[in-house]
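Checked the freezer inventory, then went back to the computational side. Two predictions to log before the end of the day. The first one is the construct we discussed on Monday; recording sequence and tokens without edits.
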Amino acid sequence: MKRETYYDEKKRLLKTSRYQLIQNMIQNIFLASHKTYGYHRIHRQLLNQGVKFFSNTVLKFMHILNIL
């Protein structure tokens, strides 16, 4: 395996696990709000917890999770 390929695959694996963590956080915030929060409020909650993503990314993840 080429060196470049190895590090590219390693970076991809870290990226997907990070996105999975964010999706779990979004789902937990949504369920804790009794399924009433939209993407703006969830985005604000994530910012309060120190997670920095654009609100459009939160919206995309909510569509992936089918909670919108």
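The second is the one RB wanted added to the comparison set:
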Amino acid sequence: MTVPAATEASAQPAPAPAPAPTSAQPAPARPHVPSIHVRALITWTAIFPLVSLGMLLLGPIMETWHPVLRALLLTGIVVPLAVYVVVPRLLAGHGVLARKAMERSAQRANRRLA
């Protein structure tokens, strides 16, 4: 009699868990994801200058165009630029600042305890 494949797999021992890190200090806590309000502010901070710059640069070229076509071209340039380039960089900068703030807070707390 043959043993089904599922039974053979369940008969094998489970892999051992990875050992815990042995460093003296615990890993610093990661900052939380920015709130929706912070993300909205960061997005606006990216969009407003891009739209303003786009209007200044493209305005004279599109002066005679229908407003819908102007909006189509402007948003076709601004939205991908904001989504793929500017907003990720602003979020990364926010993450760096948040991490530094958490580190300073942890250092202050350690000084109070010492």
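For RB: Residues 46 and 82 are 6 Å apart (CA to CA). The chain has three helices and no strands. Let me know if you want it refolded.
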